[in-house]
Design brief:
The protein is α/β, with parallel strands linked by helices. Helices cover 38% and strands 15% of the residues. It contains 14 helices and 12 strands. It has helices spanning 13-19, 47-58, 72-85, 96-107, 123-132, 149-152, 175-183, 235-248, 254-265, 267-286, 305-311, 330-337, 359-362, 384-404, and strands spanning 89-93, 113-117, 138-142, 157-163, 188-192, 210-214, 228-232, 291-295, 318-323, 342-343, 353-357, 374-378. The protein has a 7-stranded mixed beta sheet, sandwiched between helices. It has a 5-stranded mixed beta sheet with strand order 8-9-12-11-10. Strand 2, helix 5 and strand 3 form a beta-alpha-beta unit. Helix 3 packs parallel to helix 9. The longest helix has 21 residues, at 384-404. It is globular, with a radius of gyration of 22 Å. Bound molecules: pyridoxal-5'-phosphate (PLP). Residues 95-97, 121, 163, 167, 192, 194, 214, 216-217, 226, 228, 346 line the site of pyridoxal-5'-phosphate (PLP).
Length: 406
């Protein structure tokens, strides 16, 4: 008899994440981890089996009849992400951005309209310009909390696309209120959940229809994988997404699916340490004379703090700060002086990163007051005392540099 180690549905999410998608045993034994199943061709025992499996796939069952559909490794990852998000089913995409594009293309037709919060991951605007606008789909950016959503919803509005907290400045949105207003007018709600990673934020439980993640970030967690996921709350929405996923031929490698699943097993302990380290750094920055503002929702003075406390169960390693110096060269000089923080985009790996926040990107956010330069930090798993010493050295280097060239 095989030993079933699947936790009960009422077990804590952290317990379920350790076991979700685990392989069963065969002949009384088996590995802990799901094998990496790479294939293009799926072989059938006979034509009967082929027709039977194709019919099941046609009826919507999670059955692979071709390599592009993804076999055991992919299915295990999908199950783990579905558990994490608390959804109906999950689709994998080759990157976070392709997951976003899938959702926008699947749910919007020519002549239709989407409302998008202004603090979204900036390349969403590129998808709009390069793809949606060309296909007669209208995207309108708005500022939740300032603009009244009901007044913006048109007869042609089909989708409300959000990200909370937002990219760069971490604006926290009142998701339950926005969902209620959207659903009252039959508008679907999709949200980018990369920041909360599913563990610290569960948008589907708050009413959203779709949760998207750049699994590239905290799920994979080691800066070595590109991966996206789309989790639907219901079968209806899932079927619409799955049809377009299939038509686009989206497919991810089994090795990358394996690495992402391996990352999920340690998501809880990694995120907890990212939060502890980032909180320490945020407090250090908040009292620093060369810093005007620190953007990190757990800080009591952050504008999103109350909503974050209400709807989130934790925070990650991302924070942004703006310089007291008005000089636009401050950010560049600062990141150049850092030793443990590499200069690089993306985040969610175990290591610290620093990036100048581009003024044109900041300018897309209504919450940005402008005028200063800013740096986004990803606080990694190094010892926070070493990170703070590194930051202190960089502040001194900026002061020196600006003094010399004054
Ligand atoms: C990085 C990121 C993405 C895109 O993910 P990729 O895997 O890099 O394509 C999408 N949304 C957010 C919030 C991100 O930070």
């Amino acid at each position: 008899m095989s030993r079933d180690n699947a936790p009960h549905d009422d077990a804590d999410l952290r317990t379920r994440l350790i076991h979700a998608g685990s392989p069963g045993l065969r002949d009384g034994a088996g590995p802990v981890n799901v094998p990496v199943v790479r294939t293009s061709t799926v072989r059938f025992a006979d034509s009967d089996a082929q027709h039977r499996l194709q019919a099941r796939r046609g009826a919507g069952d999670r059955v692979a009849t071709y390599g592009r559909h993804g076999l055991d490794t992919h299915q295990a990852l999908e199950e783990a992400i579905t558990t994490l998000e608390g959804g109906y089913r999950t689709l994998l995409a080759p990157s976070g951005l392709s997951a976003i594009t899938l959702v926008l293309l699947a749910l919007l037709k020519p002549g239709e309209h989407a409302l998008v919060s202004d603090s979204v991951y900036a390349p969403v605007r590129k998808v709009d310009r390069v793809l949606l606008a060309q296909h007669g789909i209208t995207v309108e950016y708005f500022t939740p909390g300032r603009d009244a959503l009901p007044e913006l919803i048109r007869d042609t509005t089909r989708l409300l696309y959000l990200e909370s907290p937002g990219s760069l400045l971490y604006e926290v949105l009142d998701l339950p209120a926005l969902v209620a207003q959207a659903h009252a007018r039959d508008v679907l709600v999709a949200t980018d959940n990369t920041w909360g990673a599913g563990l610290y934020y569960r948008p589907l439980a708050l009413g959203a229809d779709i949760s998207i993640q750049a699994a590239t970030k905290y799920l994979a967690g080691h800066s070595d994988v590109m991966m996206g996921s789309v989790t639907a709350a219901s079968a209806d929405v899932f079927d619409r997404l799955a049809a377009v996923h299939d038509a686009l031929g989206l497919s991810v490698g089994a090795d990358d699916a394996y690495l992402t699943l391996r990352g999920i097993r340690t998501l809880d302990v990694r995120l907890a340490r990212h939060q502890v380290n980032a909180t320490e750094v945020a407090h250090y920055l908040a009292q620093h004379p060369d810093v005007v503002q620190v953007y990190y929702p757990p800080l009591p003075q952050d504008p999103g703090h109350a909503l974050w406390r209400r709807d989130f169960s934790g925070a990650n390693g991302l924070l942004t700060f703006s310089f007291a110096q008005i000089d636009p060269r401050a950010a560049g000089a600062f990141v150049d002086a850092l030793k443990y923080f590499s200069i690089g985009a993306s985040w969610g790996g175990y290591e610290s990163l620093a990036l100048e926040a581009a003024p044109e990107r900041l300018g897309e956010h209504a919450s940005w007051r402008g005028g200063r330069s800013a740096v986004r930090l990803h606080i990694g798993l190094e010892h926070p005392a070493d990170l703070i010493a590194d930051l202190e050295r960089a502040f001194e280097a900026v002061r020196e540099r600006l003094k010399r060239s004054a």
